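Extended Data, panel c. Modelled sequence:
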Amino acid sequence: MILPPELFSRFVLGNKYIIQKPTDKQARFLVRLEKEAFYGGSAGGGKSSALLAAALMFVDIPGYSAIIFRRTYRDLALPGALMDRANEWLAGTDARWKAEDKTWIFPSGASITFGYLDAPNDKYRYQGAEFQAIFFDELTQIRENDYRYLFSRLRRLKDSSIPLRVRSASNPGGVGHTWVKNRFIVSKAADRIFIPAGLADNPYLDQDSYRQSLMALDPVSREQLLNGDWDIEVQGNMFKRHWFEPVDMPDLNSKKVRYWDLAATSHTGDNDPDYTVGLKLGYSNGRYTIEDIRRVRLEPAEVERLIRNTAQMDGKQCQIFMEQEPGSSGKALIDHYARRVLHGFRFKGVKPTGSKIVRAQPVSAASEQGLIRIVKSDWNLPFFEEIELFPNGTHDDQIDAFSGAFSCLNPNSAKNLSLSDASGYGGIPM
């Protein structure tokens, strides 16, 4: 099921809006006529250009209407993302940008619209629309039920020659990894096809520098993004205890933070709730040291006393951070600690972003690179047992505190000690 050569020449090679000659892998993707086609593999494989070219193929045909989805509008508007790339290709042509609708209009009357699927109900905004082609960029970020629902928007007039198409692109990984893999890599359905593409398939990219960037990722992400590995998943592969160099003493001159992750549930009876964890991390000369971990199950009043006493022991040179839960209750708790428990100390509440796995990726990469030491102590074993099972273990409180401390202390982190991402209190300037 492929487009005949003369039509491929007309709709792709002779298309004035497709300003970049397709690579071999992109051409294999563009020529397919199956209802569903998926272009995926390693990062840098040219998937964004492949999707945009696919969307532009039939814009000279009156009545053609297409839509391109990303998970959020912010994702759509990022520099280098599809909306930005479309502007690079189409600005200065006879196509017209209708900003209020996020739509390109072509002289034929054809249109390409950009949409997003952030909230579960966002898909219903397209309930009355009809498209001959639907595109999903970074499909593993899209919910499966959203993908399936939007098939109902795919239709054409009885005498139309425009092929109905759903085209997607993505790297392995992300919340939708499993369903995308099952649908396109595992399944052998006759009406869908998978076109694998990797870094080596994109001659327009500086492959060496991009490869170096990908090599700095954590082991799982590196295999997914560098090698396009759909089989490797996060199954306790993010941390190994031999990555951590044991040391006898912390560096007394290092910059230090203590990050607290509070348990939400008290220990009662046979339940196995999370722990309250406070991890102290030092940084000096490009290396980090886990200096101390407090891990307890206590009542709220006892937790407050522990945190206060630990702050006094650490000294005021050690900045204190605490994970802030969403909503007014989370803000109220941080305010309580700032005013009543840790007044006089350098203290902030931090709002975490992304999943636990995403937050753990930077510190996983740093650990594998040998950048993190650990002070020898009896708390080492429980720490190693937890991190080697993450994210499939029963508990992840130490991981949360470790990731949080690293994010706050890492000099290369965009969020490092940022007032925009943290609420600062305590009476002492941050």
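The longest strand covers residues 287-296. This feature is highlighted in the accompanying rendering.
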